[in-house]
Amino acid sequence: MTLSAPGTTPNQSGLMTPLKPVVLLQQISRIYGTGEAMIKACDRISLTIHRGEYCAIMGESGSGKTTLMNIIGCLDRPSRGRYELDGVNVAHLSKNRLARLRNRQIGFVFQRYELLNNLTALENVTLPLMYAGVGRRQRQRLAMAALQRMGLGHRLDKRPSQLSGGQQQRVAIARAIVNRPLLLLADEPTGALDTQSAETVMTILNELHASGMTIIMVTHSHEVACYSKRIIQVSDGHIVNDHLSPQEV
């Protein structure tokens, strides 16, 4: 069996050819304010992440890691520079096209779950499918399968207030993956969880990565970052190291 180097795949001749990056940032800056009030939350950041990678963006509060994730997740636009998501330059897409791209290509997991309290677990997970135009029966089938994958097949009809924090986060992960996104973004996914629930969530992320999913996780925690395969350190709006292994942190 031929093993491929990261970011490459064998062609018909058996030679290694570069893969198209999932995320390609070129000299990205995000600037707020002007003059003396100007803040560069991200400053000339260049970064490449390939399909199947599991990366952690790590930095202290105010380091720029959340701004960077928002740009990668198409929740914010860079002030300068170029961002390609799977080869598509997203900088000049209309709001509607950007929203469609987010829905179909990116799954989000947030620290506070961001579930709708008036909907059941099943209804929360069907939402991305509804926005994507998937029919009702197919939505139900796919959402049930995603929740069963999270070990929540017996909690389909429960609302968030009837679930533990760990269960809510698993519902959020099910919602994030139900559209089979190109990229999963997790922003401090264990920040509101107890130790046991946090370990469960990180085990699930490891399993998703093992199945081939590309994952970018934002965290300030060394312990959480070490679940990933590649750690990207951010400080004062700059990437100070873009390819640390967990053993080097």
From TrEMBL:
InterPro entries: AAA+_ATPase, ABC_transporter-like_ATP-bd, ABC_transporter-like_CS, ABC_transpr_LolD-like, MacB-like_ATP-bd, P-loop_NTPase. The keyword Hydrolase does not apply. GO terms for cellular component: membrane protein complex; plasma membrane. Pfam families: ABC_tran. Residues 23-249 form the ABC transporter domain. It comes from the Bacteria. GO terms for molecular function: ATP binding; ATP hydrolysis activity; transmembrane transporter activity. PROSITE patterns: ABC_TRANSPORTER_1 (PS00211), ABC_TRANSPORTER_2 (PS50893). Keywords: ATP-binding, Nucleotide-binding, Transport. PANTHER family: ABC TRANSPORTER ABCH.1, IMPORT ATP-BINDING PROTEIN. This is ABC transporter ATP-binding protein. It comes from Leptolyngbya iicbica LK. The lineage of its organism: Bacteria, Bacillati, Cyanobacteriota, Cyanophyceae, Leptolyngbyales.
